[in-house]
UniProtKB/TrEMBL annotation:
Matches recorded under InterPro entries: NAD(P)-bd_dom_sf, SDR_fam
Originating species: Zasmidium cellare ATCC 36951
Molecular function as annotated in GO: oxidoreductase activity
Pfam families attached to this UniProt entry: adh_short
This protein's name: Uncharacterized protein
Keywords: Oxidoreductase
Family named by the database record: Belongs to the short-chain dehydrogenases/reductases (SDR) family.
An annotated GO cellular component: membrane
Keyword Transferase: no
Amino acid sequence: GKLKGKVVCITGASSGIGRTSCLAFAHAGASVACVARRKDRLDTLVEEIKQKYNVPVAAIPADLFDPEAAKKVIQDAESALGPIDILINNAGMQLVRKLEDVQDFEEEWWKLVVINLRAPAALTHAVLPSMIARKTGILLNVGSAAGAHDIPWCSAYGTSKLAVMKLYQNLPAEIGQHGITTFNVHPGQIMTDM
């Protein structure tokens, strides 16, 4: 495939966009590190990739709510498959509720910001030394139209997606000279179990 020899690390790999992305990159010949909380789904995905595409693949179970998880994800992925060429920050969660109706701010609103903003920032931070040393890399953030448009009852989600979008818009000035490219993609509504 066109991506033979490339290593891609994809978060939120157990379902939806993440799962489909893992399959697509494997189809293109890439080695794929599949990152998600649900180990049973990861194991099923890894077996499917092995059977269909016969490319190197690794299941990396991780809970990205854990502040230490990002560094371990990158270490585990690179130990299993080699240096990461492409990082896809896809893991996320949604909350459809007016701010005034949020009962437990920390557990509902802020937890969403942690997974949707801190996790991609921490994963990006953890992978940068390797990419800078090799003078190459692609960082892709799966954002949302909610980060660019006003959507009622989605204040936490929209805020978190806008913040990480700004991170990826600002990074090229900091790391572009190292041959690292950043992308924000903003899918509209997707039928997924997020």
